[in-house]
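Support case: zinc ion complex. Customer-provided input:
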Amino acid sequence: MDDCIFCRIVRGELPASKIHEDEHTLSFLNIMAAHPGHALVIVKPHVANIYDLDETLSAAVFQATTRVARAVKAATGCDGITLFQANEVAGGQTVFHFHIHVLPRFNDDKLLPFWPASSPSRAALDAMAERLRAVI
Ligand code: AMP
Ligand code: ZN
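Agent response - structure generated as follows:
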């Protein structure tokens, strides 16, 4: 993808404050940080979202995310870390090249609102699980 921001970072055409790099992934700081140390872990090839990740890339990106999360914890002294990963516009994705946010969190920082949740019946849970098993 010629004009994809993250592909351009991988190619070295745009600057990035890099944290970690391996064969399949690149990790760098978010330019719009929720807290200092807010990092992004991306796959190097242009893969738009989670549906298109192959097993090699999905394993590599989570291994890299684990390393980056430990580093963010150690370097920032944060109280916690939230991983955030968005797919498609409805999922909140704004850069359409797969990435995982590693977000340092602090007690009572109130960064992420929680969603209103209902409590489905066991029958509804079982019916949905059956639908998912049918397509997995
Ligand atoms: P998302 O909304 O989950 O797709 O996240 C995309 C993230 O990429 C946003 O948090 C942006 O701040 C971040 N971002 C966009 N351009 C750059 C860039 N050139 N360097 C680092 N982070 C970027
Ligand atoms: Zn890309």
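Residues 4 and 97 are 8 Å apart (CA to CA).

Case will auto-close in a few days if no follow-up is received.
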